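Supplementary Methods S3. Input chains for the assembly prediction are listed below.
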Amino acid sequence: MRGILALGAHLPHRRLDRGSIAAVAGGGGGKGTRTVASYDEDATTLAVEATRTALRPHGGTGPDILWFSTTTPTYADKTNATAIHAALRLPAEVVAADFAGAARSSVSALRAALGGGGSTLVVAADVRPGLPGSPDEAAGGDAGAAVLVGEGTEAAPVLAELIGAGARTEEFLDRWRTPGDVRTRQWEDRFGEQRYVPLGQAALGDAISAAGWELGDVDRLLIASPHARAAKVAGRKLGVAPDAVADDLGATVGNPGATQPLLLLTSALEAATPGQVIALVSLADGADALVFRATEAVADLTPARPVAAQVAAGAPVDYPTYLRWRGLLATEPPRRPEPARPSASAAARGADWKFGFVASEDRTSGAVHMPPSRVAMHGGAIDDMEPRPMADATGTVVTSTIDRLAYSPSPPIVFAIVDFDGGGRVPLELTDCDAAEVGIGVRVEMTFRCLFTADGIANYFWKARPLRTTDGTVVRADVADAG
Amino acid sequence: MGSHGIRDRVAVVGMGCTPFAEHFDRGVDDMLVEATTEALDGAGITRADADAWWLGTAQSGMSGIVLAKALQLEGAPVTRVENMCATGSEALRAASYAVASGAYDLAVAVGVEKVKDSGYQGLNAFPIPTDGTNRTLTAAAMFSMVLPAYAARYGVDPDQLRRVVARIASKNHANGAKNPKAQFRKEMSVDAICNMPAVAGQLGVFDCAGVADGAAAAVVCRAEDAHRYTDTPLYVKALSLVAGNGSGLIDPDYDYTTFPEITAAGVDAYAQAGITDPRRELALAEVHDCFTPTELVVMEDLGFSARGEAWADCEKATFDLDGELPVNPDGGLKSFGHPVGASGLRMMYEAWLQLRKEAPPERQVATVDEGRTLALTHNLGGYPGEMVSFVGIVGTDLSD
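Predicted C-alpha cells for the full assembly:
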C-alpha cells in the first residue's frame, strides 16, 4: 500500500504578539501570535528541522527523492533542496529538487509523490514576508513541514492512504509578488473569494467521488489558502459538517504559505484515530483536494515533536527585534569587519561536517574529533578514523560566554563549550535562547542554521540550542553530571 | 619535547623600541627605521655590519622585503617570520639560533605591527578562505571563559575573582604610568576597571590589552664577542616554543583553567636555563597579559604560583612592582600596548633595561639590586585550547 509513512513539522522558537505591531507600524496587527523565524533561520534551515523531526521516529529506509517547496527560497538559479539533502546526509543517488515560488507548489508536489515513483520526501518551509503594518505581516507565519510518501512496510507502515484526489486550475490574479520583494500585492478580496469557493467545491467533489464516499463521511476538513476570506467561507460552503473543520493554526502560528497544507496535514494526522477520513483542500491559483484515510498504524504514531506541543511552546520576540531580523529596520552594525564569504571548494570538501555535522572517531582511543581529522589528537594514528554523526547527539554546556564585540546578525553572540553525551567536544554558538538562560550545565541539542550571509552566500552550519521542559524552562544537568 | 638550548652561546648587545601608540602619523617603514636605529646605535654598529636579519610581523607585510626596503638593505638575507602573538619572539629565536650555529656573526631581530590602519578597533585577522564553520568569536570572549571555569574549579567567589583580575589590570596600569613609551600612562582603580563597558563574559574594555602600533629590535652576536659591542650584554639562557595541536578545543579533558602549551614551554625553558625555582630566581617576568584572566593563569602555568593560588598571590601583591616577583613592570600588553609582531621584543627591551639598571628609577625593580640576574619573557598567540607559546630567559651573567 502506498501512502504517508512519516511526517513532522518545525515551528521556530519565537512568537510575535500581533498586538504589538500597531504601536510601531501605525496600524496593522491584530489578535493572537505568529511564529517568527530567528535571524539565523531561512526556508532551507526550517525545512531541515522539519525533515529531521519527521524522520526521527521513522523506522524504514530513507527517501529516493526529496522535493522542497517554498514561497521564499534563499537562492534562485541554485537548487535549495541540495542543502537539505546534505544536512540529512542522504545518499548521492537521491534526487533533490525545488518546487518553489507559489503556495500551490507544495500540495502539487505531495499529489505527485502520492501518484507514484519511489519513496519521496516532500518538504515545505516558508519565512513569510510583508511590509510593516500589512495584513500579510500579521497573518503570515514561519514554519516547515515534511511528509514522507512511499510503499508501507512492516517497519514503516502507511499512516494514511490517499483515497481520492481532485483539482481545478484557473488563471486569475489574486496575489502576486516580484521575486525578492517584501510585499505581496493583492486584488480585491471579494474577487478571489468568488473564484476560489466554487473551485474548491468542484475539486473536493471530484476527490470524494473518486473515493466513493460522501461529503458527510469527512471527519476532518483542512483548508489551506493564502486567501483567508475564501478559506473561511469555504469552511461553511464545502458541505462538510461544521465541527469537522480543523483549526487552521492562524491564531497561533499564522499562515506559512506553501507550508500550510503540509503543516495542517501533519497536525491532523498526529491527532488522528484509525479510519478517520481527512480531506485537505488547498485554494491557491485553483484548487486541490486530497482525501486521506488514516490506517490502524496511526494509533502507534509517536511524533518526535508534535505540532500541538510546538504551538504551546516558544518565547516572545518584540516587534522591533522582529523588524531587525527581517532587515526591515536598519540598525548600526558592530564596528568589526563583516565576515568573509565561505569558500565553495572548502565547503564542498567539508560538506559532511558543514552540512551533516559528521565528526570522526579514532578507532584506537575512541576520541571524537570535531571537525573530523585524519590524525588522532592522542596517540597519533593517521587515517584510522570512523565517521561519527553528531547532529542528533545531545550535550551539556561546560562553560559559556557572551561576546558583545564579535560580528553577528543579531548581537551579542551566546557561545558555549559543549560536551556531547557519549563523547566529543566542540565550541558552538547557541541560539533560540536569551543570554541569561545559558550557563554551565545547560543541556543542548543541535539545530541547522545560517550563521551569516556574505556575498549572497548563506553560510549554513550547526548551532546548539537549549533543551526545554514543556513549560519552557531550560533543562540543566545535575552538577555531578556536568563535568 | 627535547631541546638542548643555546645557554650562554648568544648575547643581546643592542636593543631598540619605539613608543607604542596609535601612530596614525607613522608607517611601518618609520617604525622599523626608529627601532632598528636605536638597537644598532646601542651596539655601536651600522646596518652594513649586520650579517642577517629577521623580521617578525603578523600581518603588516609579506616577506623580508618589507624590512629590506624600509632600511635599504642591499644583498642581505632577510626573512619574515610569523607565529601569531609570539611573532617578535620568533624573530629573536631565529636570529639567535643563526648566530649560535656559526652561520653569522651579527644578526638583527625586528618586530613590527601596524594595527591602526584597519579602520576598526581591536585586532582583526586576515580572512583566510574556509568552509565557514570556524568560530567567529573575539579573543576576549574565548579568554573570558577562563573565569567561570577557574572560579568553579578552585571554589573562588566569581565576583571576588572578577576583582582579582581587575587588580591585575590596575597593577599593569600603575606600572605603565611610569613608562614614557607606554600607550596608556594613566593609573586605573579596580572599581574603574570593573565599571568599563562590557566586552565579553565578565570582561570589560580595560581587561583587554591596548591596541597599538610599534616596533622593537635586538642585535645578537656570539657570547664571546659580546664585549666588543657593550659592557653589559644580556646572555640568552633559554628560548622555547610550543605550538599547540588545538586539542584543547575538542578534548573533554581540557578544563579552561590552564594553558598546557605555556606550561610545556616554561618547563623546557627552565631546563635550558637551569632554573628550578623561578619565583625566587627571576628578577622580573614580562608575560603575555592579552586579557586579565590570561595573566592570572600564566602565573600558575609558569610556576610562579601553585595551582589554584595565583588569585590569592595577586591579591597579596606578589607580582606588583615592589612585590616578590615583579610581573610586567613596563605595564605589559595591557598598558604598553600590543603591536602583535613587536610585543615579544618589547618584553625583551624591558628585560634589557631592568637587568642593566637602565629603567627609569620610579619603575626599576628592587630584585636586581638584591642580586637576581635573570628575566623571563613570555608570549602566547591564539586561544585557550589552541595556542602557541614562547618562553625566553636572559641574564647578565655567564653561568659557571
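The first strand of chain B starts at residue 10 and ends at 17. Chain B is about 35% helix and 20% strand.
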